[in-house]
Design a protein that fits this description.
Blueprint lengths: L1 E6 L2 H13 L4 E6 L2 H6 L1 E2 L6 H10 L4 E4 L9 H7 L4 E2 L3 H8 L1 H11 L6 E4 L2 H10 L4 E5 L8 E4 L2 H13 L10 E5 L4 E10 L3 E9 L2 E3 L3 E4 L4 E4 L6 H21 L5 E10 L4 E7 L6 H5 L7 H9 L12 E9 L11 E2 L9 E3 L2 E4 L2 E4 L3 E9 L2 H12 L7 E2 L7
Parallel strand pairs: 1-2, 1-4, 2-3, 4-5
Antiparallel strand pairs: 6-9, 7-8, 7-9, 10-11, 10-15, 11-14, 12-13, 14-17, 15-16, 17-22, 17-23, 18-21, 19-22, 20-21
The structure holds glycine (GLY).
Length: 411
């Protein structure tokens, strides 16, 4: 079997490792990939346009392409691959807007009764400031478009709000993604990520995950792509699962059909659990990072068989290990702002599985940092506490200049 995986992070490394564990013989290509993916498959080295990737997949007779990263989706890569008769796990262009266009996504949620916090949309800096003068803090100010997980600003007062709006709408830090902002009521609670697989007619949720998005301990500081995660999410009680199924999953499924947005791929529900309810903050139309690295080691089911079944509209049931998982992300000092790369990493070769490379290259037997998030170390145990201890014991084996990790993942 030949697979192409699109993306360059720990998520793509984790998907690759899981596929190889489950199926043989398997040949995996990654675009663009990283130093870890190149060790288990082949990274495509030069730059490829969407069309060139499609021709590559045709020429190599790729059986299935898995879109890991959202960055490919708004170029309509799924439409192009499907037009050429290629199987690809991911949303077509219209459905990708559920992640790539927040106004589109919030309008969808409201139309189909998916429970979500109240919000307003602005395309003028002055109008958003005027609105904020009348509002009670805290609020979340969000860019309309994609911003690598950094487009969400939780602000507690006027000064913070002005700073966030300034960076989005005046300095244009996120480019066109910040042409519109969404100002959303802030909900106090616990974050929860639920990834799921779509088989063209149904949505099958994975185990729940708790992602730690802030750079600082105790959820302080700037938003990142994710500094660690644990599964299952301890706040996801049976009552909250039922609430999720009734008020989030069911109306989402109805909306996908009504709007002809159904696809073969993954939906990730970004949720907030308050004292007694669950709210949807956002959809992502791919698997999460580092949620994927946390979940796949717990999955007993054969991942590629599951994907093949989904293309045949077959019902999917997933078997999970009765264990807990904790993933700790090691990053370059300075991330999510400016950081240096090119640092030699020591200790990777003595790590126990599972671990996944995010931003590092392997040159002449040496591991060298190449990104903000560098490495994911995962521990499994009977409890979250056992899993976290295992993960942090592994973390002790690794070091590189100016490296950083949160010490409170799973606490
Ligand atoms: N962990 C957040 C994301 O994948 O977007």
């Amino acid at each position: 079997m030949r697979i192409l995986i699109l993306g360059k992070g720990g998520r793509e490394h984790a998907i690759g490792k899981k596929l190889l564990k489950d199926f043989s013989p398997m040949e995996i290509y990654f675009y663009p990939g990283n130093g870890g993916t190149n060790q288990i498959g082949n990274n495509l080295e030069k730059n490829y346009s969407t069309m060139e990737l499609c021709f590559f997949a045709k020429k190599k007779a790729i059986d299935i392409t898995i879109v890991g990263s959202e960055n490919f989706l708004l170029d309509g890569i799924v439409n192009v691959f499907q037009n050429y008769g290629l199987k690809i796990m991911g949303p077509h262009y219209e459905a990708a807007k559920l992640e790539g266009d927040r106004v589109f996504s919030k309008t969808f949620m409201i139309k189909y009764g998916v429970r979500t916090p109240k919000y307003k949309v602005f395309s003028s800096y002055q109008e958003s400031l005027d609105y904020l003068k009348k509002t009670t803090y805290s609020v979340a100010i969000k860019t309309n478009g994609l911003a690598e997980g950094k487009g969400v600003h939780l602000v507690k007062n006027k000064k913070e709000a002005k700073k966030a709006l300034n960076s989005i709408m005046i300095e244009k830090k996120f480019g066109k993604s910040g042409d519109k902002v969404i100002i959303e009521d802030f909900l106090e609670g616990q974050e929860c990520s639920i990834l799921s697989i779509l088989n063209g007619k149904n949505i099958t949720p994975f185990l729940s995950v708790k992602d730690y998005k802030k750079i600082g301990e105790n959820e302080k500081g700037k938003n990142t792509g994710g500094m660690g995660s644990i599964a299952p999410n301890p706040y996801m009680t049976n009552e909250i699962w039922l609430d999720f199924k009734e008020n989030i999953l069911k109306p989402t499924l109805e909306g996908l059909f009504a709007e002809k947005l159904m696809f073969f791929g993954f939906i990730y529900f970004g949720l907030m659990i308050t004292s007694n309810k669950i709210y949807l903050l956002e959809y992502n139309t791919r698997m999460g990072d580092p949620e994927t690295q946390t979940l796949l080691p717990l999955m007993n089911s054969n991942f590629i068989h599951m994907i093949q079944s989904s293309f045949l509209y077959k019902e999917i049931s997933i078997s999970w290990k009765k264990l807990c998982s904790c993933c700790v992300v090691l990053s370059s000092g300075g991330y999510p702002d400016k950081y240096k790369t090119g640092k030699v990493i020591e200790g990777i070769n003595s790590l126990n599985e599972p671990f996944y490379i995010s931003g590092a290259n392997n040159k002449k037997e040496k591991w060298i940092t190449s990104g903000g998030r560098v490495l994911n170390v995962v521990g499994l145990g009977n409890t979250i506490d056992e899993a976290r201890k295992k993960a942090y014991n592994e973390v002790k084996k690794v070091k590189f200049e100016d490296f950083y990790f949160r010490k409170d993942i799973g606490l």
